[in-house]
Write a structure and sequence with these properties.
Number of domains: 3
Largest sheet: 4 strands, parallel
CATH architecture of the largest domain: 3-Layer(aba) Sandwich
Strand content: 15-25%
Order of helices and strands: EEEHEHHHEEHEEHEHEEEHHEHHHHHHEE
Shape: elongated
Strand order of the largest sheet: 4-3-9-10
Radius of gyration: 27 Å
Helix content: 40-55%
Structural class: alpha/beta
CATH superfamily of the largest domain: HUPs
Distance between the termini: 38 Å
């Protein structure tokens, strides 16, 4: 498998430090609200990367953190009149509701910053002892210019980064590029004991400490949104590598931005949507399918029209699965004909095409295209009259669901979901057709359609398709 490494700006063969084992860290949410559609993209993308690495036979240790202490957390808690911990508990629970519905697997560890204060203090002390950090009246800063490779991830010279730096009037840093490792307690803020007095960690140091604690000093993959490259990931590299003297991550992967109706997502523009809000109109699986329909490094445009297109595409695949299951129930078992053997070879070729796409920097767009090609071949070859065996039809369903599963898609089952009312209407309609009462048959078909169920009449009987 090849991945695009932000650090080197090229595709590279992915070779884990330990054969068959992948240690991966991905930046999680700051838990002061429901997560928005921009957050959802890296969550879905890197969950898919993890799934594919596991599909290829690797054991993946995946860590995704929760930032549960920062200025946004404090301000929101004060606004609601609750503690920061109560706020974090509330929105971590809400995160899991949305993430579970999006098919995002639970991480091996979901550490909270506030539960790892000792690890955070430990790495800050190490930086201080090595001369990379300094204390200014309880605020501890990282001395950026002492790390000669600063800017290697964002590929920006230090002088360019400096030109954009701003010094807060209340800060007493040695250099405008220095960033906070530890922040002295302000009145009314949560705080923890430290060698520098009561305070709380800076944002960047939290991820370094948790990645090091739960994975290793050098990890295989660090991932996140493109917006995190600078300064967050740049700062993670600086403080981690200065503390430990080894590379922090061998591969850095970043997803592209998401726009809303071709405009940058912004609260001020009124186009800022949470996943929870979008899920009121579109199924969570449609959201995931939409996110994977473009290459992860490309910008993606979110619109109602494109979401409706994603819903239609997903329905097309599910309809194929439903058709195949129906035909399989009526099919017999027999030795494969030459036509069936040729068909199976086509499907295997398309499966190989899917794997080649995933191996090429997680190209989920082309992988989904391969699934659609399988669907097209199945719809052409397997019909009520084709006489395909139960085994070949089952093979088709299994292949589509296997490949879909790697993407976190196409795992819904319709088995056992027909209500007693629907079954009674279907039986009544079948009886009407048996006595050629076409008017009654059509009336019942229309009634079923109002319930979201389309009935197809086939030589094998009535086939239902949920809309």
């Amino acid at each position: 498998m090849k991945v695009f490494n932000t650090l080197t700006r090229k595709k590279e063969e992915f070779i884990p430090i330990e054969k068959g084992v992948v240690r991966m860290y991905s930046c999680g949410p700051t838990v002061y609200n429901y997560f928005h559609i921009g957050n959802a993209r890296p969550f879905i993308i890197f969950d898919t990367l993890r799934r594919y690495l596991e599909y290829c036979g690797n054991t993946v240790y995946f860590v995704q953190n929760f930032t549960d202490i920062d200025d946004k957390m404090i301000n929101k808690a004060n606004e609601l009149g609750i503690t920061v911990k109560e706020l974090a508990d509330r929105y971590i629970a809400e995160y899991f509701k949305d993430a579970d519905n999006l098919g995002i697997k639970r991480a091996t560890v979901h550490p909270r910053a506030t539960e790892n204060i000792d690890a955070i203090i430990g790495i800050i002390r190490e930086l201080e002892e090595k001369g990379y950090a300094y204390n200014v009246d309880g605020d501890v800063y990282f001395a950026t210019k002492k790390f000669k490779e600063y800017g290697k991830l964002s590929h920006q010279p230090l002088e360019d980064l400096e030109s954009g730096a701003r010094i807060n009037i209340n800060e007493d840093k040695n250099d405008p590029m220095d960033f906070a490792l530890w922040k002295k307690q302000k009145p009314g803020e949560p705080a923890w004991e430290s060698p520098w007095g009561l305070g709380r960690p800076g944002w960047h140091i939290e991820c370094s400490a948790m990645a090091n604690k739960y994975l290793a000093k050098t990890i295989d993959i660090h991932s996140g949104g493109q917006d995190l490259i600078f300064p967050h990931h740049e700062n993670e590299i600086a403080q981690s590598e200065c503390a430990h003297g080894v590379p922090f991550a061998n591969y850095w992967m970043h997803n592209g931005y998401i726009n809303i109706d071709n405009k940058k997502m912004s609260k001020s523009l009124g186009n800022f949507f949470t996943v929870r809000e979008i899920a009121e109109e579109f199924d969570y699986e449609v959201i995931r399918f939409f996110m994977l329909s473009a290459h992860y490094r490309s910008p993606i445009n979110f619109s109602k029209t494109l979401m409706e297109s994603a819903r239609s595409g997903l329905e097309r695949i599910y309809n194929c699965i439903s058709d195949m299951k129906f035909f399989a129930e009526k099919a017999d078992s027999h030795a494969l004909t030459d036509k069936e053997k040729e068909y199976k070879e086509k499907i295997e070729t398309l499966k190989a095409k899917y794997i080649a796409a995933m191996d090429d920097d997680l190209n989920t767009a082309d992988a989904i295209s391969a699934i659609f090609e399988i669907v097209s071949e199945a719809n052409k070859a397997i019909t009520a009259q084709s006489g395909f065996s139960k085994e070949v039809i089952g093979f088709t369903v299994d292949t589509v669901k296997e490949l879909g599963g790697v993407l976190g898609l196409l795992q819904k089952s319709e088995d056992g979901e027909i209500s007693a009312e629907v079954k009674a209407l279907l039986d009544e309609r079948q009886a009407a057709r048996g006595i050629r009462d076409w008017a009654k048959s059509d009336e019942l078909r229309d009634k079923l359609r109002e319930m979201g169920i389309t009935v197809k009449d086939t030589p094998q009987g009535q086939q239902i398709v949920r809309e």
